[in-house]
Write a structure and sequence with these properties.
little secondary structure, two-stranded antiparallel ribbon
């Protein structure tokens, strides 16, 4: 398998490849303004368990929360949890969650 393909994802915290979709988090495109400090965090990819080890996390969280509280923010909301590993995107206007019941 050649490196550099579309599925080639490297964790910004540990530098290793992310192979499991469940252990993958991407910041996505946060801003298109190169002068915005968040610009450097665009498309950052992380193992979920390594979000807490990602050095700019606290700064990233503060800036994103500021941005989301401003009128400039559009699109889904990044939801910060007490546990950084549970960081997730939430699409606005969607209140229902698909939860399958069953005994796993
Ligand atoms: Zn990692």
């Amino acid at each position: 398998m050649e490196a550099g393909g579309p599925l080639y994802r490297l964790c910004s915290a540990c530098g290793k490849m992310i192979t499991y979709p469940d252990d993958y988090f991407s910041t996505g495109a946060l801003t298109s303004d190169p002068s915005d400090p968040l610009y450097t965090h665009n498309m950052t990819q992380l193992h979920r368990q390594h979000i807490r080890d990602w050095k700019p996390y606290d700064d990233f969280r503060r800036r994103v929360e500021e941005l989301q509280n401003s009128a400039a923010w559009k699109g889904p909301e990044l939801v910060f949890d007490e546990d950084p590993a549970r960081l997730h995107w939430q699409t606005k206007g969607r209140t229902s969650e698909n939860r399958e019941e069953g005994c796993g």
